[in-house]
Amino acid sequence: MDVTDSLTDVRGLRVGHATRDGDGWLTGTTVVLAPEGGAVAAVDVRGGGPGTRETDALDPRNLVQRIDAVVLTGGSAYGLDAASGVMAWLEEQGRGFPVGGPGQVVPVVPAACVFDLGRGGDWRARPDAALGREAAAQASTEVIQGSVGAGTGAVAGGLKGGVGTASVQLPSGHTVSALVVVNAVGAVADPATGVLYGRYGDGRVAYPSEELHAQARARLAAARTETEHLRAKAAGAEAAGAEAAAPLGQPPLNTTLAVVATDAELTRAQAQKLAGTAHDGLARAVRPVHLLHDGDTVFALATGEKPLPEGPLEALTAVNAVLAAGADAVTRAIVKAVEAAETVTGPGGVFPSYRDLYER
Q1: CA-closest candidate to residue 142, choices 92, 94, 179
Q2: Which helix (H) or strand (E) holds 25?
Q3: Which segments within 131-224 are labelled E, that is strand?
Q4: Number of CB atoms found within 10 A of residue 97's CB
Q5: What would the pLDDT profile of 9-38 be if each residue is shown by its tens digit?
Q6: pLDDT band at 81 (very low <50, low <70, confident <90, very high)
Q7: CB-CB contact of 185 with 293 (8 Å)
Q8: I need a surface site. Which of 92, 148, 178, 290 has the fewest CB within 10 A?
Q9: Which residues sit opposite 97 in a β-bridge?
Q10: Which segments of 167-209 does DSSP mark as H helices, in order?
Q11: Residue 45's CB: how many other CB atoms inside 10 A?
């Protein structure tokens, strides 16, 4: 199998995006489909303001052992309705937790949302069940990055956020991969240098010139001022009884979401540890992280295609390598998301991309 440096390097996984932009929209939904038969799954929620669905089902103490899909969506808690469309699509495929005879299944579809309400200009333009169904139907091994799916309306520290993905091939033969929706209150770029935090330590740091960095900071400040002006203008329209173009007094609500996956045969407890250590990758690339205005959530999927070594010490060493690789993949996926994002200018705000600011 060709290595694509994406989530789908873990064989059997597929990713689908449904994107809505223009005419007041700037949001979308991303679906990660597990292989036939599902995948062992876990979750670790560390943000102070999460919006999730069916995460309790992933507790290792509970009944469901495998799931068929994870939904990442915009629209804040409203957007969690997208999971209903994915459930319906899975039921039509006969996939889900069996509760009776043929076709009698209940798909368990964990989901998490990012806050992007009003960023396209229309507060009520948000994902629904139809958008979730569309994303599931579009799922393939090709993973598009940037301002797509759940990353369509994403913003990270004033910069345009988005979807990114990466993978790591381990000497053991196992693959670990990640997909991240970057939508953080914290910054992804060092304000002193302009370097993406996730670039530090990877041997590929290229420092912008002082002149370019100063110009980028000025443009970012101007974008923030313009965004506040648009919000104030919308607030005035709402006070006058007209329909607002953007939410009144929009708070800095965000959230970064990730799915980290492996083909290693992990237990549910080990998968939960993978979800937890993957947050280390998030902390390397976003500063600060896990704030009360964030809902940072990481899902872990283990397809179990490749067993661990038989010896207990050898197995422990292999699991540790998987855990470390999960954090590394998340960090690189965040960098790739920010670098692939595109500038957005609209009635909901001005959100410049890192590429436009620094890679001219």
Answers
A1: 179
A2: strand 25-33
A3: 155-156, 159-160, 162-169, 175-182
A4: 17
A5: 999 999 999 999 999 999 999 999 999 999
A6: very high
A7: yes
A8: 92
A9: 106
A10: none
A11: 18
Residue type, position 11, single letter: R
Helices (H), the chain: 82-92, 129-137, 210-239, 268-285, 312-340, 354-358
In the numeric block, the tokens 């067993």 are attached to: 307
Two tokens at 195?
């370097």
Considering only CA atoms, which of 337, 346, 347 is closest in space to residue 159?
337
Count Cβ atoms below 10 Å from residue 112 Cβ, excluding itself.
32
Query: What secondary structure letter does DSSP report for 76?
Result: G
**204: pLDDT strictly greater than 90:** no
How many CB atoms sit inside 10 A of residue 65's CB? 13
CB-neighbour burial class of residue 204 (10 A; exposed 0-12, middle 13-18, buried 19+): exposed
Burial 145-181 (b: 16+ CB within 10 A, else e): bbbbbbbbbbbbbbbbbbbbbbbbebebebbbbbbbb
- Structure tokens given for 150: 């759940």
Cα separation of 274 and 266, whole Å? 9
